[in-house]
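Figure caption, in words: inputs first, then the predicted bound structure.
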Amino acid sequence: MKYSIAALLIITSIYAVGQSITISPKNVEKHVTFLASDELKGRGTGTKDEQKAAQYIAAFFQELGLQPKGTQGFEQPFKANRDTVHVLDARNVVGYLDNGADRTIVIGAHYDHLGEGYQRGSLDANAKGKIHNGADDNASGVAGVLELARYYAKNGVKEKHNFLFICFSAEELGLLGSKYYANNPTIDLAKVNFMLNFDMIGRFDPAKPITIGGWGTSPTWGQVIPPVMEREKMAFKIDSSGAGASDHTSFYTKKIPVLFYFTGVHSDYHRPSDDIALINFAGEAQILNAVTSTINALDKLPGRLEYRETAMPMARNANFKVTMGLLLDYSFNGPGIKVDGVSKNRPGEAAGIKGGDLILRLGNYTLNTIYDYMGALGKYEKGQTVEAEVQRGTEKLELKITF
Ligand SMILES: [Zn+2]
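Bound structure (zinc ion present):
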């Protein structure tokens, strides 16, 4: 009897260790359903309805056992200047998961929206008095931050990074909450390795790629993310810019590498019809699970991510179908694209590409920018072999690449 109980305990504990937790659509739905309900009246910056959202977020952080990292508990109050006349009392909500690490990952989303249409930003011609629920913009992103917080607080793993979870206010009035935080941080920003921002991740359409922004802010993104997304079977397109119309911009300008997840604009954007019924909860959970895989891969890398300034504001997008496993020099201006490094056991290495090589042509496509390269990759399928023209020093080589 004793023996069998012991055996059972061993089996149970092995099971518990081997178990990996995932983010569930049900939990995402729960958060969005509260935050985008009529009771919160569209979470206008500085309103008492928005405060209910702040209290909900703070209570959730507390329940997870996160440390309060605002200036008043989990809250960081600030003055939001709507214009020169109106100054609103707003607050960010900040929770911290201390893993005793040297580096920190910031995960953020804005929780304010357009309220009842009296503040600026609505695209409805008669906005005043209409509740703008903002289910996608951005109850979806807040649900993402909350569920990522739950994942990292409850997964039983001590990561090599600490985590700072922030829900920003006054984004709709001009990224005011994230700007305030970046200028008045409650942790040492020098220890922040990178920042992830979620703004509108509720309209996942399996037929369309999601957008990952901030791609050019670190060469590491291009190395780590494509294989993860391939494994998760998620199509994505990229936007290279670190600056854009959401809160990651405030961290990018502090020279922190950023990523921005986004399922795309739609006809309900900034209108009262951005409602709960239109949210794809299963799709959002799928995105968030791809995000934990991405973070977990990044967590294992030693040292700090390299920060890069992005030249182009809102660069044009490209689809990835296949990858080569190359680390590229995003600051190189051509002709050709410059390889900084080559990942092991990927098509680039197998073809004999080396660090320092310039790839001048891939198949029929002349490469002069990173975007030419990404556009070319979008044209090829797995298993296909194409010829690449490579410049190595003074030598020109023809290499065969099999994707
Ligand atoms: Zn938004």
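The chain has two domains: 27-299, 326-402.
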